[in-house]
Every structure is written in C-alpha cells, then in structure tokens.
Amino acid sequence: MSTNDTDDRAGVSRRDFVKAAGSIGLVAAASNAAVEMDVDDLWTDDERHYVGTDYGEYGASDVIHTTCGQCNTFCPIKVRLAEGSGTGEYSSLVRKLAGNPYSFLNTQPFSQVPYESDPEDVAMGDVEGSGDVDGDRWSLSGGRICLKGQAGIQTAFDSYRVRKPMKRVGPRGSGEWKTVSWDRVIRDIVEGDDELGHPGLKDIWGYASQEAVMSDWEAVQNGEMSKADFDEKYADDLVDTDHPDLGPKANQIVDVGGFRRNFIRNRLWHQGLGSINSVHHAGTCGVSSVMGNVRSHDAPKKRQYPDIENCEYLLVWGTNPMVANKGPTWLAPKLTNAIEDGMRMDVVDPRLSKTAEKADTWVPVEPGADGALALGMARWIIEHDRHDLTYLQNPSRSAASDDDEPTWSDATHLVLVDEPSGSKARAGDLGLVSEDADTADDFVAVDATTGEPRPASEVDTAVLDVDVTVDGRAVRSVWSQYRERVFEHTVEEYAEMAGVSAERIAELADEFTSHGKRAAIMAYRGPAKHTNGFYNTRAIATLQHLIGNYDWKGGQITPHAGYSTMSGRYELGSVPDSHSPWGIPLLRGGVNYEDTSLFDRDDGYPAKRPWFPVAPPQATQELYGSAAEEYPYGVEALFIRPYSNNHVMAVAGGDEIPAILEDTDAIPLIVASDTVIGDTSQYADYILPEPTYLERWENFGTYPNKRLADEKISQPAVSVVPDARPFEDVLIELWSELDLPGVGEDAIPDAEGNLWPLERAEDFYLKLAANIAYDRDPVADASEDELRVFRESHENGLGEQFDLDRWRAAVTDEEWPKVVTVLNRGGRFEEPTDDYDEAFAEHGHDYDYAERADDSNAYDGDHMRYKLESRVDFYSEVVPKGKHSYTGERFDPLPRVDDVEHYDGTVQAAVDGDDEPERPLRLINWKPRTQGMHRTQNSPWLRETRPENPVWINPRDAEERGIENGDDIVVDAGRETVDAVAMVTGGIRPGVVGAMWGWGRTGDGATAETIDGETRPAVEADGHSSYQFDEPMAEEASYAKGRDAGFAINHVQPLDEELGDTGLSDLVGGSNAQYDAFVDVERR
Amino acid sequence: MATQSSHFEFAPGFEDGRLRIVWYAFVAVLVAGGAYATYLRLTRGMASTNLTSVVPWGAWVAFYIYFVGLSAGAFLVSTLANVFDVGAMHRIDRDALFAAIVSMAVALLFVWIDLGRMERMYYPFVWRQLTSALSWEVHAYVAYIGILVAELYFSMRIDLARLATRLDGTRATLYRLLALGRVDTSDASAAFDERWLKRVGIVGIPLAIFMVHGGTGVLFAVSKARPYWNSGLFPVIFIVSALLSGTALVMMIYVLRTRLFDGDAVDRDLLDQLAQLLLGFILVDAALTAIEALIAFTSFHPHAVETWLVVLFGEMSWSFWWFIVGASWVFPLVLLSKRSWRRTPSVMVLAGLSTVVGVVAVRFNIVIPAQITPVLEGLPHGSYFPTPVEWGTSIGIIGVGFLLYTVGAELLPLTPLSGGDHE
Amino acid sequence: MSTTDDGDALPGIPNVGKADLDAMVEEERPDPRDELADVEADTDLGIAMAEDAQRVARGELTGDEYWEKYDEAAADEFGAAYRETPNPAVDAGDQTVSTETAESLSCTVGSMDAVSTEAAQVEGDGSEGGIGAGDEKWGMVIDLQKCVGCDSCTVACKSENRTPPGVSYNVVMEEEHGEFPNVTRTNVPRPCMQCDNPPCVQVCPVSATYKMDDGVVNIDYDRCIGCRYCNIACPYGARYFDFGGDYDDEVDGAGEVTSPEYGVDRGPREDGESPIGNIRKCSFCTHRLERGEEPACVETCIGDARNMGDLDDPDSDVAKMADSSRAFQLKEDEGTDPNVYYLK
Questions:
Q1: ipTM for this prediction
Q2: Ranges for the Molybdopterin oxidoreductase domain (chain A) (predicted)?
C-alpha cells in the first residue's frame, strides 16, 4: 500500500515523517530485543479447569514444635495438626511433619529463623528474611527432616498399637493377651499375682546402705560381729550375704530403656529404688567407639566430628552421615555443600555407602582391619615427618596456649614402665618436686632446652623421644612407645592386613597431613562394632593427635553445647531422702573381676562370663545370659522399654534371648512398657501401653556435631491412644505404692529449696523447660498472642487430654510465660550472632552469619567457640588398669592391631594372624537408609521405598555362585540359614557380603496377635497384584511387603564359643560385635 | 427375482436344533462367567486386574485392538465385493460386514471395561484434545460403525424388503423396521442400493484403513516413550495383521455358516480365493515383522533392542514362538500350502482358527513387551499376566460377540436370498 | 497524571506543554568545562566523575573502583542531592557496583528484576491469580552432585499428598556404573517434569490433563476417564494409576487426610470415588506454592539438592541454575522440554 499524501493529521505529513525517519536506519544500531507474541500453545486449555483455591493454609494454632523419635538423632520437628472426622479415638490427626525452622539443625545450609520470631509468622514461612518460593531456591517455612521422620505419622497412628494394659494368657511368648485395668496392673506388679505366679516388687525389693553393710562386714572380718548375725540382719536387704559386694536386693530389679535417663535412671532407679541396674542400648550401639574416644581425650569427648563448613579434607571412617549417623538432616546438607565448595572427602568403608558414593576416594577396607589402616597411616606420617611437632612437643596447657593451641597431647609425658599398671609418672613420684608442691601431680616431661625432666606445666617445649631412668625409675615417653607400636609393622604389612594398597595408605596419610588443621576424621560404628573395636577407634583417634586439629576451625570439634536442664530454677537431679545405689552391676562394667569376692568363689581366672572393667556397665548383650546364669546374681524383675532396646532384634545372637525370657525361673517378673507388641516385649508378663514420641514428654540430646548450642524439648502433640501412659507416670504410681523416695509430694526441690510434687511426667518436664528458659540470658516472656497460640495449638492437638491449669501449676506464674516461649519453639536454639533478628531481616536466611560476623557464637577467631580445651592421649592410663576376665592379662594402653576374638581367645576373624574363617564370605551390615532401627517398620511409606534387605554381593563372588541380581538366595551362617535376595553390585568388597540391619521382625504386626480372644492377622503386603517391582536397585514405587519382610541380621551372627547364648563382645570397649559373621550364599 | 409365494420359507438360523441348543448353552456359559467376572471388576475396580502403573495396558487393550483389527480386516474383505466387484465374494459380503460390526461392538466393550472410570465413557464426546490419537479414534469408531451399518443396510435392504413383504405378523413388522420402511423391491431400488453401497464403501475404505486401523496403530506409534512402538512401519504392520485376522475370520465364518446355518455346499473356488488371500497376508505380515525387528536391532536403540529381546527371549517369548510364529504363520502356511487342502473346508476352518487365535498373541505382543522395558534406566521392569477376572471378562465380552453374531445370523438374511445381489 | 500546568492535556498521554524552552545554543564547539561553568559545584569533580564514568562504560575502570573513588567526594560536594536522588548507578547491585562495595557504601542492593517482580506480585497482573494463572512459571532444579539418594523427597511427597500404595509422585532412581573398586552411583530423583511439550497432554482424549499457564500439568480428576494413555505416553514414567489401594489395614485414619492438589479439596478418601480410577502424578505441590511454602520434597531435601522457583524471573535462583553450564534435562532429545532441570 502506498502512502497517502493527503492523510496528514495534526499538521504532520506522514510522508515527511517516514522520509525523515528513513535515515535513522543508517545510524541507529537497533537492539535485538524483540517481541514474541504469537507462540501458540497447543496444550494449555482455554479455560483453567480443576483449579481451586483450597491451599490448605494453616496457622500457629495448628502447629506444635517437638522432637522426632524415629531414630536416635532426635531432630527438632514441626508437627502440623489436621482435623479428623472424629471417627477414631485420637484427639487430632497429623497433617504433616517437617523440620523445626527455629532450629539450625534443620535449615542447613541456610540460617534458622530468629528465636524471637512470632510463631504465627513462622508457621507458613512469613518471617521477614525467610525468602520466598519464587525467587529463592529454597525458602524457609518448614525445615528439613529425613524420610523416616516424615513417616512418623504412621508410628503414632499404627493400628497395631497397644491400647490397654495387657496381661499374658498362657506361657510367655504365647502371643495371647487379655486387657486389664491400670489399677489391677499396678497392684499385681506391686503385690505379686497368683494367676501368673509372679512375685511383687514389695517381695523383691530390699535395700541397705553401703556404709552400714560394709562397716558390719568389716566387723565380721574382724570377728566383731558373727556371720550369722550379719546374715540375719541383711537377709532381706542384700542380694547375697556371703557376697555383700553384690549390693542390695534392689539391684535385682533391672530397668532396660536408656532414654529419659535423668528421670527414670537417676531419679527413680538410682535414687528411688537404690538399684544400680538401669541399662541402655550402648552395648549394642556405639559404646566401643565412645570409649575409644573417651580414652583418647582427657576432657569428655565421646565422638569424632569435623567442623564441616571449614574443613578442607574429611576422612569419613566407617560411618554413613549422609543417611545415618546423627543425623543426616544436617550432616548431609552440610556435607554436600562443603563438597560442592571444594572440600575433599574420602570414605573408608567395605561397601559403597551413600556417603562413599559422594567420596573423592572410596577405600573399601577389610572389615575389622581399621586399626591396621590407621596405624599404617600413622607410620607413613611419622616416617615422612608430617606430624605437627610444635603441637606434639607442648606438654601442658600453658605451653599450648603460647602457640595458640587450645589442646595439647601426652606425647612427651613419661610413663613408669616398670609399673605393671603402666601409669604415667607424676612430678612427685620422681622426686622432681616435694610431695606437697602444687606441681606434685603434674605429668613429667623432659625440657628440650635443658634436657631435664620437669613438671609438665613448667616446660615450654618438651622432648618427644625419651627412654631414661629418673630417680631410679625407668621411664619412657608416651611418644617413644606409640612410635614403637606404630613401627611394629611396615606400611606394606599394614596394607596387607587392611586390604588396602600401600599407595592408597600413603595417599590418605599425605592428604590428611596436607591441610594443616583443616583436616579431620568422622568415625563411628564401622570400625567399632568388632571385638577389636575399641583399639580400632583408638588408632583412628590418635591420627588426629598427630596433626593436633582439635578446636580449630575446620578441624575436629567437641561442642557439648546445650542449655542447663537439670538445675537452675529446679534441682531436678536431687531427691530428698534418696537411696544411694551401690554394688557390682549386673553387667559387670567398671569393675575388675579380681577385685570382687567372686574371684575367690570361682577360683580365679577365667571368669565365668566377661567383665568390662574399663567400660560402663552397659554391655546389654550380656544381660539375658547373665540373668539365666545368675551371674553375678539373678534378675527378679525386669522392666523393659524396648525403644532402642529391642534386644531380640538388636543384639547379635538376639535369637537366643526369647528362650531365656520365656523361662519364668530365670526372670520371675517381666514388665514391658511399649507402644506395640514388640519383638522383645512380646515375651513379657505385662505390656503397658506407652505413648509414642509424638504423644509424650522427653528431653533428647543432640550429638556434638554442630557449632551452636541447642536444647530440645519434646512435648505431647497429639493423643492417639487415650489410655496410654508414659512409663514415668506408671513408675510414679508404683513408687508411691512402695513408698519410695523421688515421687509424690515434696519430691523436687527448687532453687530456693522449696519442695514441689511429682505426680505426672509433665511436673518434671515443665520444670525442665523452666531451667532451659532461664539458662544464660533468660528467654523473653511469651506475649498474650503467644500464650493464646500455645493454648489453641495444644487444645487442637490434645483435645481433652490437655489440662492447661495443671500444666501451669507445675511452674511459677513468673516462669510460665518463659516456659511457653520455650515450648512454642520446641526448645532453645542459639543464634549465630548477637542482634540476629535485625540481621536476619536484612540479610535473610541465605547468609552465613557464623562465617561473616567478626564475633559469632560459632567461632572464636580461628577456633571453635565451644572447645575441648584439654589434653589428648596417645596413651591411656586407665585402660591397663583393666584386665581381661578370661586370661587376667592387662588391656593395652596404646592403640593396637587386634584380631576379632571370642571370649576364650578363639579367633573369629584374623587381622594380623592367619586363621582361616570357617566360611568364605564376611557378612557386614549397616543402618537401613529407609528405616530407623526396627521401630519404623510399621510405616508402609518407608517399606515402599525399600521393601526388604537384599544381600549385597560383588559380581566376582556372585558369578562364582551363578547368582544374578534379584535372585533368591540362601545365606548359610553355620548355626542358621536364612532366605534372602541377592543384590549384585560392584559397590562392595569382594569376599564381603552385607545387608541392611533392621529387618526380619516378629513383633508389631509382623506376626498375628491375639487380644481378648480376638486374633489380628499379620500385616499383608500391599498391592493388588502379585507384581511387587522389588528387584534390588529398581524398587521405585514398589509396594510395601509385610512387616516381617527381609531377614534378621542378628539371628545369623555367630554366638560366642565360650558363652553360647549371645554374640561376641569387645571387653575393653563394651560393644556387642555385629560385623563379624562368616557365611556362604547360594541360589535358591 | 425369486418366485412370489404366499408360503415363504425363511429360516436363516441353525439347521440342527440340537446344535443350536448346544451353541446357545455354550455362549450362555461364556456370558454368565463373564457377568460374574464383570461383577468383580465393577465392585473391586481396577484392583481386580494385574495391571499396574508399570504395565498399565493389558489383556483388555490387546483384545480391543484385536477386535478393531478383526473388524477392519473383515470390512476390507467385504469391500473386495462391494467396491472392487470381485464377483464370487458377494456371497460373503454381508457376513463380513456383520462380523465387522459385531467386532467393533466387542472392541468398544473392551475399551469400556478398561476405563478406570467407566461411568465417564461418554466424556470423549464432551471434551476433546486435538492432538490425541485416542480422541480421534473414538470419533472415527463411531463414524466407522455408522458406515458399516449403512453398508450392511444397503447390501441387505432388498432382502429385508422381500422378507417384509413376504412374511407376515411380527416378523414382517421387524423386517419392515429393519428396512427402515423402504420395502420397494424393484430393480431401481436395488440399483439405488447398489450405488450407495459402493459410495459408502469408498468412504469406508480410507476410514477403515487410515483412521480406524492405522489410527489404532498410530495410537501406539506416537508414543515416543516406547521406541518399540515408535516406528513408521508400526501402523502398516497393524493393518496387515488386521487383514490377516479379518480374512481368516471371514473364511471361517463363511464355511461354518454355510455348513451349519444354510446347510449349503461350500463354494470351493471362493474358499480357494480366500485361502490365497490369507496366504499372501501371512507372508507379508511375517516379512514386515522381520523387517521391523531388523530395523530395531540395527538402530541399536537400547530400549527397542531390549524390548525385542524381551519379545524373542523374555518372560513371554513362548507367546511369540508358539502363537505368532506357530499359530499365525507356520501352521496356517502349512495348511495353505496345498491346493487340495485349500479347497477342503474343514482344513481351512482349522487354518482360519489357528490364525485368528495366533493374531490374538500378536496383539498381546504389541501391547505388553513395550511396557516391560522401563522408560528410564532405574525404573522397575514390568511384568504382567492377566488375572482370572481379566480373562473372565474378556471371555464374557467375546461371548457377547458370539451372541450378537448368532442372533443376527439367525434373524438376518446374511446370505443373499438368491444367488447374489444381481438376480 | 500529568503536571497541572498542562491545561488541556489528556491524562496519561505525553503532552507538549506550553512551557517555553529556555534553550541556549552556542555556535562554537562546546567545551565540557563550560557546560558546568555556571554551576556552583566543583567543576573539576563533576568532569572527573563524568570522564571516569566513561571509563567505566568502556570497561577500563570497575564500578567498584569508581564509587570508592568518588563516593566520599560526591557526598561532600553534592550533599543531600547525592544521597537522596534515586540513582540506579548507585543502587543496582548487578550493574556498576558489587555487593561488597554497596555494603561498604552502606546501601543495600537488590536486583532490579527482583524488585519489579515483587512489585508486580503485590499488584497482581490483572488476572485472577492463583494456581495455574501463570504469574510464575514454576521450575525445579535438582543438583545431582548433591542428591544423596535418601528418598526423603519420596516420603515427604507421600505424606504431603497422601498417595495410595504403589503411587509415588517422586521416585529416586539409582544408576551404578563401573567395576569394583571404581564404582560410581548416581541418584536421579524423578518428579513429574511438567514438560513444556507434554506427551501425556498430547494423548489425553478428554484433555483432562492439560498444561496450565504456570507451567504445571494439571490432571482434572473430575474429567479423567482413567484410560491410562498418558501413563503409556509419559517418557519419564511419572504417571501412576490409582487402583484404590489404601493403608487402612495398618494405619489409623489413613484415608482421612487428603491433599488439596491443584487447590481442590476432595475430603477424605472414599471407596470408588475419584481420584480412585484416575491417573495421578506430581502437581509441583501448587497448593503449597500458592500459600508460600516450598513443595514438600524441596522443603525436606536432605542433600539440599532440590530447588524450586520461577523460571520466568531471570533473577530467581532457579532461573540462574537452570541457565548454568551444568544444567540439563532428562531425555532432552525427546523434545518434551521439561521444567525440571538437573545439574550434572
């Protein structure tokens, strides 16, 4: 179309304009931005259909912050409540669980919301600075929790839960129960019951104080008192008047449970009953690792964790922090971000764990040979002078602090080598100072400038290698002995033992010593759960002594950082008129056999069963055999809370336990407090319904793998089983009936000395919340709004079960608003910096406050804010005080390479020896990624993600046996054979097979249950067809199998040759060995 | 024209009353069993099947495409008569059309029972999706059934008219209704029918080939997610095996109905013609399948190769070797190889039956194997075999097809009343 | 609105007003110094700044250096005018001044787009908003280096969306490669990709499943006939049929809670009622996004591998991640163009 000349408007000629503009084309470089307007979209419907505006909004009144209990990590969580139609007995449904956004544990790598934030803003993520969903890659409303935590709803609402107190019908383990009233149960337990023919606590309990007994016993020895009088006087009070050192009869009332230690162990068992026997899960869990660390450090240090954020080289050793350890919710995001930011991580593990998948180098070590690997690294480091001499030559705190070192080592300290117990020399012993000098108790080091032995605190730089005689006594430095131990084998020999090439050992050692203080080790159960686990852990710990990385940014951390729980406003640990527990613990920990009256009775060594002289009395694996053999004495009443103590499943050789439990002569009364009819509790006389973790109080700790302080409090969020009672409440009632101290009126002193009653669990825990609230700077008072939110959320969650006035009455009116502040947040969580709320509003959640502030609560310059600040030990004085109760030999003060042995010394698995195992494949096992121990098998959501525990087998071993992935196989462990499924993977060392532990259950719906004549069948597999899509490694969206799916690892573990009724034990560290079975597998 | 007679005999049904009872009893058993299975299907929902999210399509879909194929094949055989005027074929023209209609009805019943929400079966006519082959298909099916009915009408009307005029009472009324009131039996009306028959047939061929059958093939072929289906040859193979099964079916029906209903002698030349047609289709089908496999193996597309390996050597390879190779190719080829056998009705019934059954396996082998191999490495492999409910409902639906066909064959003048349309 | 002296101006339309222009034009070639001659401010400073501004433009001088050089002087010289006049050159983080400099100048920075998008959000863009409106284009980025294969996403999704047995909107696939000891495994989480060219939508005969303007592919449970064609067509195996199974045998109240997918609350799960008999898949948790919460799987991701945001906002974290050289999509050659990106 041509331009129309006459078409001029507003005095402008179009033609002129077009012409004038024509020249622009020559000069203006137009930008390329263009308009895209007609991209036709075939697939968007003209109208939006099936779109609503129900977004499920909620507010603070629908949220309760508490703690997850699906595994022993105990993450802070946010429980979002949901209204139900009111069909069940439950007070409320749970809509969703998430991490608690107030807690830095659940928001990694981002920062938590400020502690002061209004719960109403926090609920749906409206806190200023918490980011938003469209702009930020991750905005903060709920925090992170793992899959097991997500499934917690199905634990609380498990339809197989115990709903009423139950008494067995027929023999123990018959699987038949009848419901009884609480009153009746309490009476039966106190008075005894003719129907079942068991005694009551009244008949069993007896107590006399240690001073009284021992002074009378002295009198008997001196002939001042006749034995008959003694017998008569103490017949009802002592276990055995011939062996008063066994302690009071109360010791025969045994508690197995472990958690709620402050309440149940300290207050009720120790101080109320006067029984020393309150046992937790340590022996089956990580005790050898804990003790290996405890013996390697002077101040309390149980665990090895790095400062991940600043670490440059991390050696993960036999632990799986990405999906296990404690806990994945923060360790995994910290690790993945650190790796992406350039941290190198190597993983020592016989199999390619989820953590090893992310490693720079995977080191598939021979199981149980970790000590050899560690000592091999130590040898390379020492040979190449890569150890930190400055650090090692500091003999004391003052010398260390001159070098800005928060810790120092015992390397230069002298040991009295002619002492059988191998103790370290003190300045007083060697006559260096007078006996009453301040420095008389100092260790001794040889001053490098003068060459003279001096009290360590007076030496600035000490000599490492010393082997001399001082004051007529032969002394050798710790370093001299450690070095000698390390040099017992060449790197090549260590490599041979560990199944790792010498080059690889050199590479690890080189890398470990190439980052100054910014290299660290994270180790846990892998190296520790063998009979040599203690020494393995020691060897690993001393590697870090060599570089002195403790308390350094990027190094090894020890932040035991919490808020006061047991004292402050209330002295919760103190019991007026308490009993003092004493005597030999049933589990024989902390006592040398030869120091007891049983040594003579039983003609000395070998002792009938193992003793654990340098470990705590927590070798739970020994409990049942000891009860059966009444060694050192019988158990009259056993109270079990199987939570983390489901020993039939958790103890290697746990399949031997039922027979012992079924024997009413062995243990006359067994009471279980359980949420379900569990694998262990099914053998009890009574099962008392417990609330699950979402329904009760608790105060769980956090492992020292964080930078800041936190204190968690669990509170009831819902009530699913109205008749369930927390075990505390049951015990309070029993103790009241028995008139024991620690409960009822006047049970708890406050700071002023006034006494408060203890009638219900909350009386204790609300006071504990008050202690938390007032520690350091007390928290702010809850506002009116917050008090209302507290009331509404608890009314929504607990319904009838919530008695606000009763809760309020447990603390003072002044304390209450602060208690509510703490409860509304699920605990206390330290902020990374001061004035954090303003900073947060400005910088938001995606900002590293700890790193960027000059003065943060996480770091103190180049050091951690929370420190170990003590000596670290190559050489333990304590360990050689203990003697092996079979041979009478002293334990080794140094790390060492050791074989895996039975109690009598029979070799189960050789490390430096050459004994051949009886079967070709070593069976290891590990924490199920998709389950929290056994307790979460009630969740079909979790069983769907992994329907069973296939046996990992290397293609080389599989091909030999004609096994393909997914094949049905038989695992032959000698004493047992079990059916399983093969998972053929290059991700496991040849010669080693392995599977997730945590499967093959018999309790909680895995088998049929009969209650009041009604039989409930076992849970069936899900899915409408026979197709399960459960081939290992391709189980995506498969169906859950029954709760008995898979096989029980511990039921194919070897039994101790000498004992025959339980698995093998580490006598130094106290652990139950769990990775030392040898099996063969073949196709079914 | 036939002689006018006031006492006109028209008994198109079974010759043998006992055979009729046996047959209806047999069909009743199928339908009753199917009814019970359907009851289970309705009350338990899709959980009564062995279908899963990994293998979402199974026996019902296989039967559905099988019957669509059967219908299209039968229709194409009928068009040989109507459009291409193959003289001898006229005898079987209506048979083929009616079989095609019944097959479509059966196919749609299979589609219906396969829906997760059966009560919404009319939704595809309320909402559409232009890019959806299935959306097009359901519309095509309706059009196609319309065409089949129209063809059958034009092919048969004159005989219906004759019956309406010659019989009396309710039967007369029935045939009058079926003739839509056009009871003119003049040559002009016959020519009119003839003309329209051809026209409708011409419209019908592309619809049958491209929309209905090719379209059903396209239904699969567009699935990029499944390379085994995602090939250009796929719709072609679909049509060829449709022709194969359709021809075999028509041949069988022709022999059986001629023998059992009409009591006539079988036209051996016609039989030979049909048999040769079948022979040709079998060879083409086998050749195309081989080419398809070759293409898959030389493409090295892992998914396609793996799927073919599943077909040839996997869990269900027995169905390939026994049913496809054995029943639909080798066995009929042997029977069709000799001229004398080709002219023996009983042998040809056997060949037809073998092919018809064998092609069912072809359909299963189209539907199932592509779902066995996961679409992403890491997802589970599929696995599937129908449940008794699936088999039961399938047999019941097939029973309904038998019933429809038998009732139709007993009522309708499927065999021209005189030698042919041109008297 | 126009200024008041515009008399007969029409609102909103630029107006050539009556004001006389006071344009002075000199004949000679102008000297920049003269330009500033009659300004009371320090001429040299102005010229130095202008010249250096040129150097910044030519890349010879960084914006940071420029502001470090002139910030003090300019503040002294120009006083309040300098501090108070909006000036993107001072304010814009990603143009002339880096965050650090901005902090040292004690002014916060934010990207322009971030602010304008936020502003747009507050205003709403004329559409009624809500799920599917297209105010955002939702996209997910999953970092495979960080994904630890823990399946927390899978279970979080089951809990959020209360899917029945065998229906899992998200799965995590494992791939193992290599031979001992050089074995690697990759964990590949698989939600629905919300493809831009979705084969599932393409095949649905009743357009029950369709693409919303926010990029999410919706399934209309009231329209879906359960033919499972989409199930067959999805190249990612992301669709699952609801066979009607439940967890009632072992979980109390299992069917009481359901998820308001696409903002539609269907109430408790009932036998025989939709979504039973329908196809199901990941909805990107649009109901959560709409109320301002991350999808359940993103919120809980233990490896910090999953990220969600608006791909249409070039300044959003995910848009940048999806743009990085590490980004790829699954089965890119299928042409489905997923809105889920993975980082190698």
A1: 0.85
A2: 304-725
